[in-house]
């Protein structure tokens, strides 16, 4: 029976290792064909050695059991070669069992041919070394423990080799030295190659993370270019819409049912024009810098929510500040950088779009962190995509108010959330999306104080802390 992924199912001979939460049942990583090829090399060498000892050296020694073991191994290996395709991969648990089989087969041969004094005991390092390279730490430790127990067993239980008329007598001190030498070699090589393997895996993960980051940066750059082009192209038709809406409101009687709708179109066109203006100014490299490059969290959020507080049809917006009992000079400051203000403004706008009556902006800090929470009393985030928020093309809300959703364009592709989250993470913030207990939505933006209190550029690129 092959040690495949199904070998450890309930009731099988390896059921103790069949737990679904065991790290040994990770995704397949080792190719079976590689282990089969190594085993063919071992079988060839073992068979050649037995033939040389039997016929080349002419020793009077029964080779029936050793040859039977080698033959059974060859038959098992041939069945694996014929049963599975070259691309078949094993789980960590199955790969460990294959290597354990190879180690036990080798120890059985060594026990029948001199035990620990056999010069070929050095071959015990091969399965342990291969396991240290390809298997996770716990699987490698189990394989190493099996090697130690097997080497200790054949140091005491073995069939001595025939030495002719002048037998070679090996005292216990020499045999103990052989055991220590084998264990030292196995331990050193296994630890060394395991460390090299860990470093290689870390490097691969770092490269993969870098590729994902670069892909996100490229996508963000493409969206930035697209938004700049959209801001330029939409200026003219938006001005036409605003002009037409204003002329309609001038011609209609205020009591006309269409007057309110025309006024709404005029108001929203003005809002779109202001948004496009901010986007254009934020993207200009030669834009004049603000005379106040830093602001307190409360002042910054009041500046951001100002345009939304003037909307009579919108919800009430309340800013609450939780001031800790710290030195007044310890009040944090936030750089008034366009990406921070645009990102926080995006979250505030999203909250006002879906809130029923109220949006709360809660600000709190301590000696280590600054947290800004934007909470609304709307329908909350859709639980089915909550864990994917921040990825592009993921719609972020259930539609709670059809009228307001249609008026503000809610239920989009999730690009605004993706851009805002990416921009804030580039400044060192962590962004979390949760649903509150009363079915509202909450966005938490948390900065380390060390990033914000720096006198230099607090938005140096780096991972979010």
From TrEMBL:
Keyword NAD: no
EC number per UniProt: 2.7.13.3
Chief localisation class: membrane
Record GO cellular component, one term: plasma membrane
Protein name: histidine kinase
InterPro entries hit by this protein: 2C_sensor_his_kinase, HATPase_C_sf, HATPase_dom, His_kinase_dom, HisK_dim/P_dom, HisK_dim/P_sf, RegB
NCBIfam families with a match to the protein in the record: ActS_PrrB_HisK (NF033792)
PROSITE patterns: HIS_KIN
Highest taxon above the source species: Bacteria
Localization per Swiss-Prot or TrEMBL: Cell membrane
Keywords: ATP-binding, Cell membrane, Kinase, Membrane, Nucleotide-binding, Transferase, Transmembrane, Transmembrane helix
Topological type in the membrane: Multi-pass membrane protein
GO-annotated molecular function: ATP binding; phosphorelay sensor kinase activity
């Amino acid at each position: 029976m092959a040690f495949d992924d199904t070998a450890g199912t309930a009731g099988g001979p390896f059921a103790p290792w069949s737990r679904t939460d065991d790290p040994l049942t990770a995704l397949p990583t080792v190719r079976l064909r590689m282990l089969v090829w190594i085993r063919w090399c071992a079988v060839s060498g073992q068979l050649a050695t037995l033939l040389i000892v039997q016929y080349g050296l002419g020793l009077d020694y029964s080779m029936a059991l050793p040859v039977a073991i080698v033959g059974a191994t060859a038959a098992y290996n041939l069945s694996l070669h014929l049963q599975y395709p070259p691309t078949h991969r094993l789980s960590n648990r199955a790969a460990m069992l294959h290597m354990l089989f190879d180690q036990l087969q080798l120890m059985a041969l060594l026990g029948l041919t001199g035990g620990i004094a056999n010069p070929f005991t050095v071959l015990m390092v091969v399965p342990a070394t291969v396991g240290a390279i390809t298997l996770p730490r716990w699987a490698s430790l189990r394989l190493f423990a099996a090697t130690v127990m097997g080497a200790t067993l054949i140091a005491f239980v073995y069939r001595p080799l025939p030495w002719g008329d002048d037998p070679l007598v090996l005292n216990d001190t020499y045999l103990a030295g052989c055991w220590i030498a084998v264990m030292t070699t196995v331990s050193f090589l296994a630890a060394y190659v395991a460390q090299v393997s860990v470093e290689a895996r870390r490097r691969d993960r770092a490269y993969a993370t870098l590729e994902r980051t670069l892909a996100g940066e490229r996508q963000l750059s493409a969206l930035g270019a697209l938004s700049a082009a959209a801001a330029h192209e939409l200026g003219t038709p938006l001005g036409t819409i605003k002009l037409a809406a204003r002329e309609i409101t001038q011609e209609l009687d205020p009591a006309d049912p269409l007057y309110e709708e025309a006024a709404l179109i005029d108001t929203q066109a003005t809002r779109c024009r202001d948004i496009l203006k901010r986007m254009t100014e934020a993207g200009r490299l030669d834009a004049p810098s603000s005379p106040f490059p830093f602001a307190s969290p409360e002042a910054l959020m009041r500046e951001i929510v100002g345009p939304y507080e003037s909307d009579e049809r919108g919800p009430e917006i309340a800013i609450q500040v939780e001031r800790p009992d710290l030195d007044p000079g310890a009040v944090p400051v936030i750089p008034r950088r366009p990406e921070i203000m645009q990102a926080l403004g995006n979250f505030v706008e999203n909250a006002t779009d879906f809130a029923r009556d109220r949006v709360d902006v809660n600000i709190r800090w301590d000696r280590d962190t600054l947290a800004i929470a934007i909470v609304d009393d709307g329908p909350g985030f859709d639980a089915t995509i909550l864990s994917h928020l921040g990825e592009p093309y993921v719609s972020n809300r259930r539609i709670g108010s059809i009228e307001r959703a249609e008026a503000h364009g809610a239920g989009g592709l999730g690009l605004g959330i993706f851009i805002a989250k990416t921009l804030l993470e580039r400044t060192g913030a962590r962004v979390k999306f949760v649903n509150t207990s009363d079915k509202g939505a909450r966005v938490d933006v948390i900065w380390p104080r060390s990033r914000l209190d720096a006198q230099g550029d607090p938005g140096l690129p780096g991972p979010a802390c």
